[in-house]
Amino acid sequence: MDASGLGGSLARMYIEQIALIVADYDEGIRFFVDALGFELVEDSPALTSRSGRPKRWVVVRPPGSRTSLLLAKAEGERESDAVGDQFAGRVGLFLRVEDFQASYDRMRDAGVEFVGEPREEPYGTVAVFLDVAGNRWDLLGPRRTPADPSQPIRFTVSASVWALEHVNVAGAVVARVA
User: Fold this and answer.
1) Quick one: which of 104, 91, 40 has its CA closest to 70?
2) In this predicted structure, what is the pLDDT of residue 176?
């Protein structure tokens, strides 16, 4: 049996694209390519939309990523109402980066709007930002390396103070003797 419990009957899968509704293709391209540093994978004419208007097939993705975003221009009132609110005000997309501070600084310099200051979480440094449409994203730094389970005790000395700390796998102190 494999991890799915289906005995290996499922072929390897991945999410190839996620559609993100935008008000304008070119604004979306500028934001994702220029401000976030994504690659423009494709920008080509496509068959007409449901209403018969010409549309474009616009695909962007982070460098080296397998999963991409299909920028879909809003058509009609319902789609226009969803621009910037695809996740009902929640963070709906998560961008993991190798160098959080460099990415954060570059994005701020490029005009990306952050909703708060970066904070430390067990899953890494995180800051919420808004995309070109107003959807909320998490910018995530590298995952913290879990403490080595064979080394759960940390001894620290600072000036004349010493402490013995027991840390959990996320690196959080769960007991301290000073």
Assistant:
1) 40
2) 47
